[in-house]
Design a protein that fits this description.
The chain is mostly helical. Helix content is about 75%, strand content about 0%. α1 runs antiparallel to α2, α1 packs antiparallel against α5 (about 80-105) and α2 (about 35-45) runs parallel beside α5. The protein is globular. It comes from marine sediment metagenome.
């Protein structure tokens, strides 16, 4: 079940990224990518599988993750795994909401 996989990545990602952050001695080292994976999985949650939605989801997630609108930027200031994962989780949720709104408005 994909929900179980998402939950495992989410919980495991928080723990692992916190440990990796200690190992790499830096804040959100670029070698840690599980946060990006989890953010994208959240972006695509309950979104139909198609090239259109994969590309839209990827672009939306990356733009939101890079620009960190609203209070998303403050989330990454939290220490440890929660900070590393939190901003990507929030970006994924926002991207998913945008996709769901577009699907509803445009009848995709």
């Amino acid at each position: 079940n994909s929900s179980i996989i998402r939950a495992v990545f989410l919980i495991g990602g928080i723990w692992i990224s916190g440990k990796c952050n200690q190992y790499f001695e830096g804040d959100d080292n670029s070698s840690i990518v599980i946060d990006e994976l989890v953010g994208f999985l959240i972006t695509m949650f309950l979104v139909p599988f198609s090239l259109r939605f994969l590309l839209l989801g990827f672009v939306l997630f990356r733009v939101i993750d890079i620009t960190k609108p609203f209070k998303i930027g403050k989330i990454e200031k939290v220490s440890g795994g929660w900070g590393i994962m939190g901003d990507d989780i929030a970006a994924g949720v926002l991207a998913n909401l945008i996709i769901q709104a577009l699907r509803t408005m445009l009848a995709w």
